[in-house]
Design brief:
The protein is mostly helical and 91 residues long. It is built from two helices and no strands. Helix 1 runs antiparallel to helix 2. The radius of gyration is 20 Å and the shape is rod-shaped.
Length: 91
């Protein structure tokens, strides 16, 4: 097997792993969005400092997961560009 083909197999495995990680992170993001919606609603209804703190914390969790998903997507797209360049060399 040629070196390019071995690299392609490795890249495909890495891309598949990143896709799985993205899917899992999206599920967790949905969970955190639900928590944030509930916390924000509680904070608006009660105006209690602890409820406001919970809403702020859950909002930060949502933002953190959004950044994480964006980072995973960027990494996957970089690997896909590498894969495309290698595929072009095979022709």
């Amino acid at each position: 097997m040629r070196k390019i083909e071995r690299k392609l197999f490795v890249l495909n495995d890495q891309i598949a792993a990143l896709l799985r990680d993205e899917e899992l992170a999206r599920g967790e993001l949905d969970f955190h969005r639900h928590l944030h919606d509930d916390a924000a609603r509680d904070a608006a209804a009660s105006d209690h400092p602890l409820d406001r703190s919970d809403a702020r914390d859950t909002g930060l969790d949502v933002a953190r997961f959004e950044r994480h998903i964006d980072d995973l997507r960027k990494s996957r797209e970089r690997l896909e560009r590498q894969r495309d360049r290698l595929l072009a060399k095979l022709d």
